[in-house]
C-alpha cells in the first residue's frame, strides 16, 4: 500500500492580498509544507501548511497534515464499521 498526506486547509486564514492570478485567470497561492520539528503531535499530524506573508514577515498557519495509507483493500477511514454501527 502507498502512503499520502491528508489534512485540511483553513481557507479563512489566507490573506486575500497573497492570492495571485495566473495568465489564464486561475487563482493560486504559494504554500510551504514543513515537517514538524518534534515529529507527530498527539493527533498524528506530522506536517504543517503555511503561507509566508511578506508584509508582516511572518508565516500564516493554514493547517496540518498526517500520513494515511491508501490503495489495496477497504479504503475506509477511521476503523471498520459493522452493519449494526451504521447510522442508517
Secondary-structure topology with pairs:
Blueprint: E1 2-7, E2 20-21, E3 27-28, E4 32-35, E5 47-53, E6 58-70
Antiparallel strand pairs: 1-6, 2-3, 4-5, 5-6
Structure description:
This protein has 88 residues and is mainly β. It has one domain (2-69). Helices cover 0% and strands 39% of the residues. The chain contains no helices and six strands. The strands form two sheets. Strands 1-6-5-4 form a four-stranded antiparallel sheet, with no helix packed on it. Strands 2-3 form a two-stranded antiparallel ribbon. A hairpin with a 5-residue loop joins strand 2 (20-21) and strand 3 (27-28). 5% of the residues are buried.
Percent range of helical residues:
under 10%
What class do helices, strands and sheet pairing give? mainly beta
What is the overall pLDDT average? Answer: 86
Question: What is the tally of helical segments?
Answer: 0
Amino acid at each position: 500500500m502507498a502512503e499520502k498526506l491528508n489534512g485540511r486547509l483553513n481557507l479563512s486564514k489566507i490573506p486575500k492580498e497573497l492570492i495571485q492570478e495566473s495568465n489564464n485567470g486561475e487563482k493560486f497561492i504559494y504554500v510551504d509544507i514543513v515537517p514538524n520539528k518534534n515529529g507527530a503531535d498527539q493527533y498524528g499530524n506530522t506536517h504543517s501548511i503555511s503561507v509566508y506573508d511578506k508584509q508582516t514577515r511572518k508565516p500564516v498557519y493554514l493547517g496540518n497534515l498526517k500520513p494515511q495509507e491508501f490503495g489495496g483493500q477497504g479504503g475506509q477511514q477511521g476503523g471498520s464499521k459493522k452493519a449494526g454501527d451504521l447510522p442508517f
